[in-house]
Amino acid sequence: MTPEEFLKNFGVLVEVPGGLGNLREMILELAFQGRLVAPVASDESAKELIQQIVQKRGKTTGEELGQTAINSNGTPQSPAHWCWTKLGQIAEVSGGITKGRNLAGRQVTAYPYLRVANVQRNLLNLSVMKEIEIPVQELDKYRLLKGDILFTEGGDWDKLGRSVVWEDQLPICLHQNHVFKARLLSPKLNPRWFSLFGNSPSGQQYFASASKQTTNLASINITQLRNLPVPVPPAPEQTRILAKVDQLMALCDELEARQTKKRETGTKLTQSALDALTSAEGPEEFAKAWQRVADNFQVLLNTPESIGKVRKTILELAARGQLAPQDSHDEPASALLDRVATAKIERVPRRQRASIRYEEELHVEPPFEIPQTWQWVRLDQLAYRVEYGTSSKPLDDSRGIPLLRMNNLQGGQIVFNPLRYISRETEDIDALMLEPGDILFNRTNSYELVGKTAVFLGQPHTYTFASYLIRASVLTGLDSARFLNLYFCTPAFRATQLEPGIVQQNGQANFNGSKLRSVWVPVPPLAEQKRIVAKVDQFMALCDTLESKLRDAEQGAQRLAEAMVAEMVA
Predict the structure, then answer these.
(1) Which of 222, 297, 258 shows the shortest CA–CA distance to 544?
(2) Global pTM?
(3) Cβ atoms within 10 A of the Cβ of 358, count?
(4) Which of 147, 190, 510, 545 is the 20 to 30 A CA-CA neighbour of 287?
(5) Judging by beta carbons within 10 Å of its beta carbon (0-12, 13-18, 19+), is residue 423 exposed, middle or buried?
């Protein structure tokens, strides 16, 4: 496959997550393999150019000249008419100013200087510049000149070996000791060529292998930078390759802009369609808005983000009574709640019927309007128990009782892997065994994870739950538990019922059982709850299918992109 053929397939890489970044790296790899432009026989020999430089310096180590590849450190193959050398052979490499020196008694002056934060890959960020004092006689030593190549020492991995060319952006500027400069020894050598190589995958591979590394940190010293192996094409070829790189990078910028615009347009269309659903007034308007979504499901839901938004909207519509139709023949929620009150008297011992002091200051009123046949109540009016789990220490012994913990609540569902266990001899454990329909609520964790919920649908009297979870058991059956759980997963519940009551202390957020008892919950007629849950299951299954197709498409594009890349670099 020729580079021209490769460019025709740019769209494949653009659609893959991270594809444009991979594409930019691939352009650099092709550039430093000499595969972007054709050689010209009349060009001055690269080897002769390097020999002129090292002879002028009066020193050479011949082994660095005339090589076509340095495979020991992963440097790619290059054309035979190129020459490999080390950066220190063709450039003066020096360190910068050390901060905090004692300059007492010396004549000093202050100038702006470059820090690691200023030196990005192929980019200088001069938005925040600091000044440093130096002795006046040291100005020439540390002053940057146009064409100086800057390399960062490191620190975090993303700062290792970052490179850019200084273009006299400021009249006078210095550099700190954590930023090295390389000043080329011939005007026939193009600074951008060597800066780009330092930022290429091959250059970064060298820095990674040569660097001193500790946990999450890496750095290079000036000797390692001088030993950086660099490819040197003839001077005119350097110029032609850089022009081609600029052309292709501009094309990448254009493709990125198109892709961004396409995604923004898609996001706006999706949001518009969802807004029409949530703002619909009356059954006819809602039906029309929903039909628009249904007819364009695969167009609107073409990214993971858009599918996530639709999931939230489905839950919000379900909780508001807009997802499934009302039926005038349904028994009203008030009759259901009367039966719940009677059953609660029979189910809950008298000593446990103490009235709950609702947190009125947190939840003044229910969060939204509901159909006339529904009713708002406190969770305590619907649940016959709201309690914390066991504080027994979890074990890895699978002969014990499986223990559900915070990490087992994911996306509104319970995942049963990984599991920990507690001893079957734990005191009063029988009272804390889970039953189908129990709602589990995560009461403590980081702020965004407090309030995770799920309904237990496993085998009765088989699992228990940890003390960081709260169990709420309702008297109205499994469909009611599932309806409440989907309501707990809505943005409206979190914003109006949960977040006002979260307390943060020592890096942890908490929401206690008394507050959970007092939250407002909507109660539809029991028959309508069944219809709502079934409709939610139907739409969530459709979202699952679309997500699966999206993943398959992305993986297929990724495999094709990898095959294209492999063919180009072979």
Answers:
(1) 297
(2) 0.62
(3) 16
(4) 545
(5) middle
Question: DSSP letters along 357-389, please?
Answer: ---TTT-SS-SS---TT-EEEEHHHHEEEEEE-
The residue count of the chain comes to 570
Residue 570 in tokens = 């072979």
Distance CA 313, CA 317 (A): 6
Residue 63 has pLDDT above 50, yes or no: no
pLDDT one-digit tens code per residue, 315-350: 988 998 888 888 999 999 999 999 998 888 877 665
Residue 255 three-state SS: helix
* Sequence-ordered alpha helix ranges (H) in 449-523: 478-488, 491-493, 513-518
Beta strand 212-214 with 469-474 is unpaired
295/289 Cα distance (integer angstroms): 10
Contact 355, 446 (CB under 8 A): no
Q: Are 119 and 129 in contact (CB under 8 A)?
A: no
Of 241, 232, 190, 239, which is closest to residue 68 (Cα–Cα)? 232
- H or E stretch including 109? strand 108-114
Distance CA 293, CA 360 (A): 39
Backbone angles phi, psi at 295, to 5 degrees: -70, -20
Question: If you average pLDDT over every residue of the chain, what do you get?
Answer: 85
pLDDT tops 80 at residue 459 = yes
CB 515 within 8 A of CB 376: no
CA 563 to chain centre: 26
Nearest Cα neighbor of 315 from 522, 499, 118 is 522
φ and ψ at residue 180, rounded to 5 degrees: -85, 155
Which residue is it, tokens 């009272």? 431
Torsion sign, CA atoms 184, 190, 192, 193? negative
What are the DSSP calls for 70-94, one per residue? -GGGTPPP--TTSEEEEHHHHEEEE
Cα torsion at 404, 410, 413, 419 (round to 10°)? -30
Q: Residue 434 in contact with residue 462, Cβ under 8 Å?
A: yes
